[in-house]
Amino acid sequence: MSLATCLCALLLLIIIWLVLDFRLGRKKHLSIASFMETTILHGYVDIFTHGKELFADYFQEIRQAKKHIHVLFYIVKDDSFGQEFLEMLKEKAREGVEVRLLADRLGSWRLKPSTVKALREAGVKFAFSNRIKLPFLFYSAQVRNHRKITIIDGEIGYLGGFNIGKEYIDQDPKLSPWRDYHLKILGESVHSLQSEFMIDWEEYGGENLQHEPPYFPEKSLSRGPVRHQFVPTEAGMLEGKFIQVIQKAKNSIIIGSPYFVPSNRVMSELILALSRGVTLTIIVPYNADHLLVQEGSYRYLRKLLKIGAKVYQYKNGFYHAKTMVIDDNICDVGTANFDKRSFFLNKEINCYIYDSAFITRVKEVIEKDIADSLPLTIDKLNKPNPWRATKEILARFISYFL
Predict the structure, then answer these.
(1) DSSP-derived pairing of the beta strands 338-339 and 260-261
(2) Is 218 a residue whose pLDDT tops 70?
(3) 233-401 is classed CATH 1.20.58.100
């Protein structure tokens, strides 16, 4: 048997293994996942759009923590900003505050073993979420915990698109300034965010904290004016939720996402919305931060532009916000991108807001982002470009994993 034949046979076996691994892993994941969303809650909600302002507030609240700090991030980097964050957590742990940090195994791969050891020695309870494990190595490598939530003393919550790393505070020249949306939440709904952290911590940290009363304040948290709910998703649940929300649109849909690679069902709903007279506005980055993600979006944007959608490419830095606004009635801000990876693979959590005053505020932010963008036209996308066309073909084959 020739070397070429052996290599072809080996390649075929690898492909068969990857396909079986992924399908069987997904089947098991679907069998154990369950859809949960909170009831309509009431609280006080603020929005941050720049990392420096967010983390100034965030760090101040952490430094003032008295009882416990629970943190989940997709990315925690071991750079200078990450070290500042981790040193602060260690200092709070030494003060006697209970500190728990959950970081995604692949998203936070830059955390060195020595860094993790130092955290634990200082008293920080640390765990990696979504570790790659048998028997489905390939599938488990694809399913990431993309959530970013923090709960401080059971009274203050944060949720959104920012992670821990220099680029998020405009210290990466290639991606600065970084544009993102992150919520700060006070009031009764913080209990629900705390419970969601506990579910993830039990799975990856190995401790059941659900029935520990110290994590919930003895006093009742106030019912603020902003109606909202949290929707954690995984294993395909987000696709159905987004379809449900899109179907409610009567006048307008606004989508902001760094990656626009919708599923066929979601794409069909957007086309139906346009056909019934709903305006569709999409904001995406002008410059991409990952290989092929931009080219992966073009075939969808091309179809939508042809039937009347408006698409804007954000130019004032890198656009990483994740939002959807339906009429003046629903505003979604969370951790999920508008792509198949968030729809079908990642663990995500979104906050759906039903408050006209807050939605007006978010729309003002979006209008500013559109003003800092360039319109994407069908003529530009149809202009002959062999290299782009080649990348579009490649992106189409792997669109599930972009």
Answers:
(1) parallel
(2) no
(3) no
